[in-house]
Design brief:
2 copies of one chain form a homodimer. Chain A is an alpha/beta fold and about 300 residues long. Chain A has a single domain (about 10-310), classed as TIM Barrel (Alpha-Beta Barrel), CATH 3.20.20. Helix content of chain A is about 45%, strand content about 15%. Chain A has helices at about 15, 25-40, 60-70, 85-95, 105-115, 115-135, 160-170, 185-200, 220-225, 255-265, 275-285, 295-300, 310; strands spanning about 10, 45-50, 75-80, 95-105, 140-145, 175-180, 205-210, 230-235. In chain A, strand 7 (about 205-210), helix 9 (about 220-225) and strand 8 (about 230-235) form a beta-alpha-beta unit. The radius of gyration of chain A is 18 Å and the shape is globular. Chains A and B meet through helix 8, helix 9, helix 10 and helix 12 of A and helix 8, helix 9, helix 10 and helix 12 of B.
Chain lengths: ~300, ~300
């Protein structure tokens, strides 16, 4: 975590937020978005996914986006890849961090990346080897998708989450991302899950939260995870996002509302909230048909509100 | 609290939800709404406000609504009044509970009820006397409006909230309702506030929460209050509501999403969530121009979801 901040927010809108958009988000627009958002003080931005363009044409420009992202200093450039081939491309492009994702639910993993969980873990081990050889400074984060419920198999046992977390940790993961991929999580469940995962792995690697707001509980889940000691949160500006294989699971939690929650709670994010709200205009200009979410942007700051970062 | 439930939800849509509606919600529609919602198992419904019709014409039919509400058994019929005159009418109409409201913020109280806080407390004492004489079975709840921030004066000191809570308790209040009237609250602040109020008064009277979702933190605030031991929550179906004197403070927290949160957390509300979602149709039919909020109603239940009340 960057010095001087209490909680790390990570923008995933340029990946999770736009991956199911049918409209191609122009490369220049992506670069304008990440440039403006890096300037708000956002400590980490997931700028793209390294996947076959025929599968997700939205990311056909991944190399160009990373190249542009690298011209800016002061934040972590992350990219997602679900396999070795994409990881290779991401390392070559020069990302700082690779996000690898596997569903805890076997059925969801088969639907999402067409492999069993065992195969995904084996592939991750090959990515670790490649990283150690070719890009030793790159951090490897492992996303535990459907950790809080699966739209195909329903409830996901905590023991399954702990087991997969353990396998990834043993294999060399630098971070564990507990993910409510389909927006099923309840804050009570989140508290118990994060207590368990942080209790087991929290002193070894960062444990992050990736929540969707599908059923309105996204920010309640954030507070529950905060209470359990989580200090790393994914979100997407204006709540863009979803999963192509999780019906109706549209919408990451809203980054602007997340920052408002954290800053109001006295936790420094390092992000300038006013500037962040202005970045929504870039998204709106590039996705004119897409509804933008977020209550803070509509209602404005409470009278006399001083964000923790500004109070410092 | 009704036996067999863990948390008490209280529908305030028929009062807070519609008081700023410019369209008159037809009396028959109001009766259909409260009848259908009582049938979901909702333990308490605030059915109207006893205020001068020239001030709030929406409640010109308050007596008729209460008369209809009393034909149904098994739930608490509440009504709001900000003054002695309205309380008199409410007692005569036969409500089970009277909600009296005073803003902790002097400026907001002057704007909302045209009296100082001192005058409001004195008026409450007269209501207690009247209740003791004329309607000894009626419970008196006191709302501490703007307890978590004021759109006129900004931050509201915890000490002011505790002082007003103390004055109402001494005067004879049967319940204290800590209210985020203008949607300023942050879950960290909520946790501290409810720890303080419940710590001081929780063993004497119920301490309830009244949250608005103006800035997206309403359900996070619910979880924070739950963590502090609060077990009584106001909400309005489909998130209708607001305050005429609090600019942009539209929207109580969404009852359907609240029940989803609580039932998913393993807490019995006694409310049938599926039936509750269907009641939204009555609201939609009577307020066709009004946007209905609520994520659960849009996304549906998680696969395999069993509400705590149904599991019992």
């Amino acid at each position: 975590m960057r010095p001087g901040i209490d909680v790390e927010c990570r923008e995933v809108g340029l990946r999770d937020g736009i991956q199911i958009q049918k409209v191609f988000f122009p490369t220049e627009g992506k670069i304008a978005w990440l440039t403006a958002e890096a300037a708000t003080g956002m400590p980490e931005i997931e700028v793209c996914s390294f996947v076959p363009p025929k599968l997700l044409p939205q990311f056909a420009d991944a190399k160009d986006v990373v190249a542009a992202a690298k011209k800016i200093d002061g934040y972590t450039i992350a990219a997602l890849s679900p396999n070795l081939r994409g990881a290779m491309d991401a390392f070559e492009a020069g990302v700082h961090k690779l996000n690898y994702v596997t569903s805890v639910s076997e059925e969801h993993n088969l639907a999402n990346v067409r492999r069993t969980v065992d195969e995904s873990v084996e592939d991750f081990k090959r990515i670790v080897e490649l990283r150690n050889e070719k890009a030793p400074d790159v951090k490897l984060a492992t996303g535990l998708a459907t950790a809080l419920g699966c739209s195909i198999s329903g409830q996901v046992p905590v023991a399954d989450v702990m087991a997969l977390a353990g396998r990834f940790f043993e294999a060399g993961a630098d971070e564990l991302v507990v993910s409510d991929t389909v927006g099923y999580a309840n804050p009570q469940q989140v508290k118990e899950m994060f207590n368990a995962v942080i209790g087991e792995f929290g002193d070894k690697v960062p444990v992050a939260a990736h929540f969707h707001d599908t059923r309105g509980l996204g920010l309640a889940n954030v507070f529950a995870a905060l209470e359990a000691g989580c200090r790393h949160f994914d979100a997407s500006l204006a709540g863009l996002g979803g999963c192509p294989f999780a019906p109706k699971a549209t919408g990451n939690i809203v980054m602007d509302d997340l920052v408002f929650l954290l800053e109001g709670a006295g936790m420094k994010t390092g992000v300038d909230l006013d500037k962040l709200v202005q970045v929504r205009e870039i998204v709106a200009a590039n996705l004119p048909e897409e509804p933008l979410h977020g209550m803070y942007a509509k209602a404005g700051a409470p009278k006399g509100f001083v964000p923790a970062t500004q109070a410092a």
